[in-house]
Every structure is written in C-alpha cells, then in structure tokens.
Specification:
63 residues, mainly alpha, 38% helix, elongated
C-alpha cells in the first residue's frame, strides 16, 4: 500500500520506502522519527534529539 505520491525519504533501498504507514509504525516502535518528519539534526532521529533541537530554535527566537 502506498500512502503518498512523493516520498521525501532518501533511503530508496528501505523496504518501507513510499510505504508511509509501515514506516511510521516502525519508527514509532523504535522511538525515532521518519526522515520526512525530522528537522536537520546531524542524523540524530531520537525524540530527545528533536526536543533539544526545537528548544534551541525557540530560544533563539526569544520564546
């Protein structure tokens, strides 16, 4: 089943490429984010890494 028309993930060899529902399920189970939903953070896809990156962004904006 294909959930999207264009997949943003560069990992074309991944068995879940263009299968977003399966990809999200896999990442949810591994406590990480799919590439298409992640901010640039030097390859760290953990929720903790996302938290720190977003916190840093909002602190720079004065929030």
């Amino acid at each position: 089943m294909s959930c999207v028309k264009e997949c943003a993930c560069p990992k074309t060899t991944c068995p879940n490429h263009k299968r977003c529902c399966d990809c999200v399920k896999r990442h949810r189970e591994s406590d990480s984010l799919p590439f298409c939903l992640f901010v640039d953070n030097d390859g760290d896809k953990s929720f903790e890494g996302l938290y720190h990156k977003l916190k840093e962004r909002f602190e720079k904006k004065g929030h």
